[in-house]
Amino acid sequence: MTKDISTLVVNALLPCLAFNKIVNYISYKDLKMIGIIVLTSLFIYTLGILGGVLVYFGFKTEPKFFYGLLFCSSCTNISDLTISIMQSEGLQAIFTTEQLGKGVSYAVIFMSVQNFLLMNLGLMTIPYYDVKNDIEKEEKHNETDANSSTSDDQHLTKDITDKNSKADSTFNNDVYDQQTSLSDATIESIDSISTADSDVVDSEEVEAEEIAEHEETFHQRRKRKSSISSVLTRPFTNSGTSHRVDRTTELVKEYSIISKVKSGQFDIKKPLDLYAEHPTENINNNHDENDKESIPEMEEKKNTLSDWCYSHRLGWLYYILINFERPCSIATVLGLLCALVPWLRILFVKQNGYHIHQGPDNAPVLSVFMDFTLYVSQASVPIALLLLGGSIAKIDLDKLDYKFVKAAIVLNLYRLCVMPIIGIAFVNRLVTIGWLDKGDSIGRMSLVMTFAVPSATACLYFTAMFTPVTGPQIQMACLGSVYVVAYLMFFVTFAVVLTYTIKHDLGY
């Protein structure tokens, strides 16, 4: 259910939120702020990677979690937390609705930059390189075993064939001698007995199959009934403690694609499924080669484009372009296009200095789209927070790597304490040099807030995608330690950073 709801959020709720907030609160006057957000995002990712490298070499942590450490230290939770905090009731007592809406639009642009890096540039595959060497070694080992077994099977098959030919000739001679000695009456009696026995056996087999089906149905109903009752009574009783489910392993089983990578069904270098937050299929796996007649003309053109790009060594360009078809990417691009072009923006919202004929209700002609996206987007924040809690709940404390806890504490001290200090100094420097207006309080707070959030929740799913189902699952154990420490510290560190920014820097 978590996987389905997250897909709903990515394909419907977040695109509506992105389009509505960008068109409502962004205009061509904010081009400088968009550039500052892109620059700040790259600076945050650089600081995060630097912290991951220092922790790795300073503590000599698990070598199979090097790329995963860089991944979780660079990606920040700029969609769930920052947007929900911007829409919280506490900030509504300080900032106006216009300011908070603009802050949400800034958070959406931050999210778009991160999605471009992860999806369009393929940085989401970084955790794969922690297990790449093991997969290659296993493939080479399987190839050598297959070659040796093939040669052994050839020799064994030859020996068995020789023995079987000798045995068959001897057996056929004996059978022929015995058959010639039997009388016709004996043969008829044997045939009648065998026919009766076969009828009895057939009836017994049918009855056994019917009994097995009834028993299977009964056990399924009983199992379903017990599972439902256990779910209903687990919060009130201790009956679920004796049969505890390994949540981290279940997460890996659900999202892991390593088996598909080994079998060749999944290609890391090709675009992934466009309609899932945590894609586990390539984009072209939805259509079979023998089903070309059912593919629409646009799909055929797309396949022709992909073939042309890969044949001319431009697969990287196709990878970047095709990811713009993701719902969030389309909504962001269309939102920026409509927001930055005044004669398009006035079709959706009222804009000072420009005039166009209004609709019968004295509203912009296409304001119905703004009403629709606003209505749908209001569900994105509470559902996103529920998914955040559900994702953290999937971390199994018994599976944590406690040797990595010290490194996790240092990494989160750097991310949640040191990086916000750097962020405050960075934002104040932007104000000093005139890049950022001193009166743009919501813009300053949005930038500082992005420095002070923990790792992105999506890192859990992307790491689970590239974690083998069998084995110690070192990557998930280390990442779980990072998240547990991060959210124990986050409530304190973020409150201090937010209070200092509002009281000291903004002067409220």
Which key terms come to mind for this protein?
globular, Na+/H+ antiporter like fold, transmembrane helix, transmembrane, 508 residues, mainly alpha, membrane
Describe the structure.
This protein has helices at residues 2-25, 31-59, 66-74, 80-86, 89-92, 97-120, 132-181, 184-233, 247-255, 258-263, 297-311, 315-322, 327-340, 342-345, 367-377, 380-393, 405-432, 441-451, 458-465, 474-505. The protein is an all-alpha fold. The protein has a domain at 2-137 and 322-505: Na+/H+ antiporter like fold (Up-down Bundle), CATH 1.20.1530. The radius of gyration is 32 Å and the shape is globular. 70% of the residues lie in helices and 0% in strands. The two termini are 43 Å apart. Keywords: Membrane, Transmembrane, Transmembrane helix. The chain crosses the membrane at residues 34-59, 66-86, 106-129, 328-348, 368-392, 413-436, 442-464, 476-502.
Describe the structure concisely for a colleague.
By secondary structure, the chain is an all-alpha fold. The chain has 20 helices and no strands.
Instruction: Round the mean pLDDT to the nearest integer and report it.
Output: 79
Helix content: over 70%
- The second-level CATH architecture of the domain at 2-137 and 322-505 is Up-down Bundle
- The CATH topology label of the domain at 2-137 and 322-505 is Na+/H+ antiporter like fold
Structural class designation: mainly alpha
Strand content: under 5%
Distance between the termini: 43 Å
Give the count of helical stretches.
Answer: 20
The top level CATH class name of the domain at 2-137 and 322-505: Mainly Alpha
- Form type: globular
Question: In total, how many beta strands?
Answer: 0
Radius of gyration: 32 Å
Largest sheet: none
Give helix and strand order, one letter per element, not per position. Answer: HHHHHHHHHHHHHHHHHHHH
- Unreliable spans are 178-183, 221-243, 287-295
